[in-house]
Write a structure and sequence with these properties.
Layout: E1 2-8, E2 10-11, E3 14-19, E4 30-31, E5 34-36, H1 43-55, E6 58-70, E7 78-89, E8 99-104, H2 115-125
Parallel strand pairs: 1-7
Antiparallel strand pairs: 1-5, 2-3, 3-4, 3-8, 6-7
Length: 132
């Protein structure tokens, strides 16, 4: 099982969504920033490191919002942990994505997100999970 973390950065009722590059796995799919944790790394520490690499920020990782498992065909199963980002230092820079966009929660479902993120997006859209 591969452990993957993702961070939900919230600004003015909108969430930061990131589109994968065309030349990688799941080309041009949308996702929340984050990535695989390294051996011996906690989920929060892995997310903090990934946000530094992808966005150039020093993030304060907040509470875990949702955890699930997903299996993409032909790949190892994933355990996905989604955290709220309580705050950060620095200015967000796009260091890894085709594009980034601030999106209202009710508009997230309209983007072509990774399948592993869709359950979280549905729960946010139905008000089952809150970004506060």
């Amino acid at each position: 099982m591969i452990e993957v973390t993702a961070g939900l950065l919230v600004r003015g009722g909108q969430v930061l969504a990131c589109q994968r590059r065309a030349d990688g796995h799941h080309p041009l799919k949308w996702e929340f920033p984050g990535g695989k944790t390294e051996p011996g790394e906690t989920a929060a520490a892995g997310l903090r490191r990934e946000l530094g690499e992808e966005l150039g920020i020093d993030a304060d990782i907040g509470r875990e919002l949702w955890r699930t498992r997903h299996h993409y065909p032909g790949r190892e199963p994933l355990e996905l942990s989604f955290f709220l980002v309580a705050g950060y230092r620095g200015t967000i820079e796009n260091r890894a994505f085709a594009q980034m966009r601030w999106v209202a929660v009710e508009e997230l479902a309209a983007l072509d997100f990774l399948d592993g993120d869709r359950e979280l997006i549905a729960k946010l859209g139905h008000g089952e999970l809150r970004l506060e």
